[in-house]
# Entry
Amino acid sequence: MDKINIVKIGGSLINDEKSLNKFILQFDSLEGKKILIHGGGKEANLWLKKLGIPVKMNKGRRITDSKTLDIITAIYGGLINKNITSKFQKIKDNYIGLSGIDGNLIYAKKRDKKKTDYGFVGDIIKINTDLILNLINKDYIPIICPLSHNKNGQILNVNADTVSTEIAIELSKKFEVDSYFCFEMNGVMKDIKEPNSLIERIDMKIYKSLLNDNIVSDGMIPKIDNAFYGLQKGIKNVFIGSPEMISGKTKFTKIVL
# Structure
C-alpha cells in the first residue's frame, strides 16, 4: 500500500505567525501524499471574547450556540483556512483550502442532546473519500477546516481532532496512514512547565492513569481518545508533538494499543 500522512495542527501554531511560518516549511518538505487538517480554537476564543460571546467548553469540546457558530464559520472557514492556504501558495500552487461543507466532504448529523447539549455540533456520518482521492491523485494537497453540514442547509462544528481521525480511518482502507497531531509542545507532558517530562509512549493503561491523576485534561482528551479509536480502526501510527517530529528532529509521544 502507498503511504499517506495526515497532519492536524492546532493551538498556538495557528495564531503565532512565526510558528505557523515555520510549520508551513516543515509540512511542505514532507514527502509523498499528505493532507493538512487545522483547528483554530484559540483564535476563535479571541474573537468570541472581543465580541462579548461566552466561550463554553466541556472536556475539551466546544459547545456551539448560534452566535458561536457564526464566528467559528468565519474564523475556521475564512480567516484561518485562507490565511494558511495563501502562505502555502507562496511555495507551491497545488494547495487547496476546503471546509467539510465543500463538495460534501464531511456529512454530519447534529449531535443528540444527552447529558450535554452541544448545540450546533456535528457527529460525522460520512467522509467523501472520492473527492479526497480525486484531489490527491491530481497532486493537490487539501487543507481542511472542521466545518461540516447536515445536507439540510445547516452548518455544523466538528472537533478538528475527530475530523483528522475520521479522514485517516477512511483512507487507511487504501493507504498506510501515519497520523500526526501537532501543537506547540513536544507531546504529552507529565508537567507542562517541565520540558523534560515528556511521556514518549502511551497505551490505554497509562492513559487511564493520566486521566485519574488529572495530568491529561481539556483539549488533550479528544486528541488521545481519537488516537486510540483511529488505531483500532486501521490507522498504522499516531504521534502527538511539535512540528519538528515530522522530520524526526525531536522526540514525541506515540500512542499505542
Notes: The two ends are 22 Å apart (CA to CA). The domain at 3-183 is CATH 3.40.1160.10 (Carbamate kinase). The mean pLDDT is 94. The chain has one domain: 3-183.
